[in-house]
Amino acid sequence: MKKIAIMMADGCEEIEALTVVDMIRRYGKIEIVMVSISKDIYVTGSHNIKFMCDEEIDEVDFEEFDAIVLPGGMPGTNNLKASKTLISALKKFKEEGKLLAAICAAPSVLGENNLTNGLKVTSYPGFEKSMLGATYLQDRVVRDGNVITSRGMGTAIDFAGEIIDYFEDGASDAIKKSIMY
Prior knowledge:
Elements: E1 2-8, H1 14-27, E2 30-36, E3 42-44, E4 50-52, E5 55-56, E6 67-70, H2 76-81, H3 84-96, E7 99-103, H4 107-111, E8 120-121, E9 135-136, E10 141-144, E11 147-150, H5 156-167, H6 172-178
Parallel strand pairs: 1-2, 1-6, 2-5, 6-7, 7-11, 8-9
Antiparallel strand pairs: 3-4, 10-11
């Protein structure tokens, strides 16, 4: 079974994070692990919603994972950028050809760490300048090789669907239908 780490930071956009978790768990053929990037299993989102993660970043063996997902939100995205452990894992995943997915402001984490060079990407408006060496698009979701990016909260279902479809083409259609999307 494929395994995804979704990186949760204080100040993340709750819908972007939990929509991905929900849809992948509904799919049931991919394991998703909510990873707190702090030393606390509890994360408080940008709208003061507190939730419990499955693991803390220091407990994670990234070798076990096939993908890393970055929800956006502020100051969550800045907290992601400040995690040296996360940045190191992202760079290694890129080298190994593993999936990197980021939504809203979080694609800037990839861009500012030279992980979008030569790729087509998108993000929340205003973060275009962070996509170093990339071709910036305004599509709801952009998939280029092993990188998936998306615009924001309103595109979270499409984003989660693209992550599922990365591992099994077309598999998200049944989930979208079941949730009346």
